[in-house]
Amino acid sequence: MAQQETDQRIDSGTLVAGTADGFADDTAGAAERELAHRERGTSRPITVVGNPVLHKECRDVTEFDDSLAALIDDMFASQHTAEGVGLAANQIGVDLKVFVYDCPDDDGKRHVGAICNPVLEELPPEKRHLDDSNEGCLSVPTAYAALPRPDYAVVRGQDAQGNPVKVRGTGYFARCLQHETDHLYGYLYIDRLSKRDRKDALKQMEEGTARYETVPNA
User: Fold this and answer.
1) I need a surface site. Which of 5, 44, 64, 97 has the fewest CB within 10 A?
2) Which among 121, 180, 206, 213 is annotated as catalytic?
3) Rounded to whole angstroms, what are the CA distances from 161 to 69, 148, 193?
């Protein structure tokens, strides 16, 4: 997901409350973990709308090995280069269900992690409060559009070692979790827009210039 402008202060040392109820602690050592990943990784160019890998469901991750670890490192490096807050594997051309994130929530807490085979939990009605903030995507460079999404999200999946993991997010981070999970099932955020808003987003992309390397479409 493309980074939004914010004046929030990111506190990389604050722990997630409620980890005792099974949610991953993805704030502890966030800065150090992100730096270690991207220093091991190599940045790759970003695929853009129209590339077939972005428009189909990705394959499940079944092997939690050194190749997966190296891919995750490359994804963190690529995300950093593109100044994003989330990145799915198919955004660097890899057909696997894994995404990484380095994203603040609305309290300014920095969340860093990787999730394989993510599934969004259905929210009960009392937790479905929609936030219609702007959303952007590294695969639709320079374009933004308002898109209503729940301001709370829970994603279940596996970590890089194959262990079960559950992550929750509020506000901006909730949007990131939903956005990246969508990617791995073949959906871009513009696919959830009206025809008019989608057309406008594609026009913004056509008129803009990406600030990072992209993969040309054939």
Assistant:
1) 5
2) 180
3) 9, 34, 36
